Amino acid sequence: MSLGPDNLSSCHSATNAGTMRAGIVEPAPTVSSVEAAAPPTIHVLAIDDDPSVRQMIADYLGDNDIRVTAIASGRGIADVMARHTIDLIVLDLKLPGEDGMHIARELRAESNVPIIMLTGRKDEADRVMGLELGADDYLTKPFSPRELLARIRALLRRSRAQESIADGLARIRAYRFAGWELNVRLRRLRSPQGQIVATTNSEFNLLVAFLAAPQRVLSREQLLELSRLHNDEVYDRSVDVQVGRLRKKIEPKGTEAQLIRTERGAGYVFTAAVETVR
User: Which residues neighbour 147 within 8 Å (Cβ) at sequence distance 6 or greater?
Assistant: First the structure.
């Protein structure tokens, strides 16, 4: 990553230079064995030029047993990630003198670490572009630390669900259903007529979620978690939109939905028998 080293901005001062506390990473290089015995299990990297925002994030997440490294610019990201295992990144897109989109693009190119963007309320174009570049969620400023915590927990749940699915998919070569074949490794969908049907990343992930659990009702929340579709106040119908797009590609034209059935008030069911090719 081309983001060069920068000094870490500590959000608190410790009475002992070598102390590590929940929610804060002090700059001292060593931690006593007693203090290191039970560290927080989640480590968040927050990048924001506003010291009060960094302080708020570190305070609130620290009070909820989340370890935080807070820095003022993107130039310190590579150094932090080289020295620590980061579970999630909170990134302000409006860093003075830096291109937040470029930072997000570089992060996604080199890592699958979940990213929550911080944007202004009127910056819809930035939010859309950030999501297209691979960010997983966003918050508009000013935001409540309680909502940030909830989104961090939800995003990490989805990320871990994806890791479990990825482990399973590593042992699967393809799925076959109703004459269709989805080659998982090549991410290629072939129609019963032998034609390759292009799918977006979201459509592919959604189809995989359905094929991994045929004849089962999957709620919108489950589909959000399994397919990593964006879930927030603006995009809360994203599952319905993506299901509609997927139906147009795999359902016979001019017919009612046959492969993906809507269960009113419950979610969706993939109705076809599915063969797994390992």
Answer: 139
